[in-house]
């Protein structure tokens, strides 16, 4: 909260206390027999409202004690309850329902016990009971409304963060796809051109013939093209993730997702493509669980080729399960994330299963050979 917002709230609290104090003092001035002590009690009870945000229960206690003392001493009208009503509302607003109701009951007891005229006091007491009930109910309603607004804001922020992460992930995957295509097509073709030009130059030198300038130009240009292509590939691959699945799990926990991580086998450095695929699979599975599973528990199991998860030895097994709301009778339509996972696993010669579980929830099963695809 900024300093300007704090100053505005403090000013609003002071204004509230001043308005209630002015009303209470004005009403007290029209009552016969009002003394300086009565005016002091009204002023102090009203002034306490200026601190209701910092200490709502203390303000309620002070306002109730001073307000009760005032009605016992001066026997005023119902408007004398204004400071206590304000304190009851603010206490209920922050969740102290029992304390708020007790404060109102103490004031009403003092008002009824000392008021002259049984029927007249009963009518006024009934009016005050309605006021105090309204103060408690409106306080609780305001508290629920504020909680709803906070939850809505958090959901909006989470949705925005998820959209940004998905966009960045898709952009990164597209850059890596382009890098792979360039590497697999252009690099191979340019290498063949450079190799053939080099062989031709070598044979010309061996026979003692003059090397054609065009052949030398082709050799030099192909070498320069290879260097520039490698630089472009480094730029395209510059955003490859440097984290680990364990780091992704920690981030998911920090975001409020309940996640358990189990790692079996000899955790060790993996081939670059396998490591990247494993990172993206866990990332996408956790993102989908956070977005679609609801308040579910997620289990992440990674096996480094021991066969403990049922996969053959020498295969990296990744299992991500949740007990969320997915229904096997209504399988989801594969989106960009699931499609990207499947393409990445297939490129490595592995297998992927991503579908609702029979017992409910969603399961992702990935099996990646622990050798980098050629």
Structural description of this entry:
The chain is an alpha+beta fold. 66% of the residues lie in helices and 10% in strands. The chain has helices at 3-29, 36-47, 56-74, 82-93, 97-114, 118-207, 213-236, 245-254, 272-292, 336-347, and strands at residues 258-265, 297-304, 315-322, 351-356, 362-369. The protein has a 5-stranded mixed beta sheet, with helices on one face. Helix 4 (82-93) packs parallel to helix 6 and helix 9 (272-292) packs antiparallel against helix 10. The longest helix has 90 residues, at 118-207.
Strand and helix layout:
Layout: H1 3-29, H2 36-47, H3 56-74, H4 82-93, H5 97-114, H6 118-207, H7 213-236, H8 245-254, E1 258-265, H9 272-292, E2 297-304, E3 315-322, H10 336-347, E4 351-356, E5 362-369
Parallel strand pairs: 1-2
Antiparallel strand pairs: 2-3, 3-5, 4-5
Helix pairs in contact: 1-2, 2-3, 3-4, 3-5, 4-5, 4-6, 5-6, 6-7, 8-9, 9-10
End-to-end distance: 55 Å
Helical residues, percent: 55-70%
Radius of gyration: 37 Å
Overall outline: elongated
Tally of individual helices: 10
Uncertain spans, ≥5 residues at pLDDT below 50?
none
Say how many strands there are. 5
Give the mean pLDDT: 76
Main sheet strand line-up: 1-2-3-5-4
Summing up helix and strand content along with how strands pair, one would put the structural category as: alpha+beta
Main sheet characteristics: 5 strands, mixed
Share in β-strands: 5-15%
Helix and strand element order: HHHHHHHHEHEEHEE
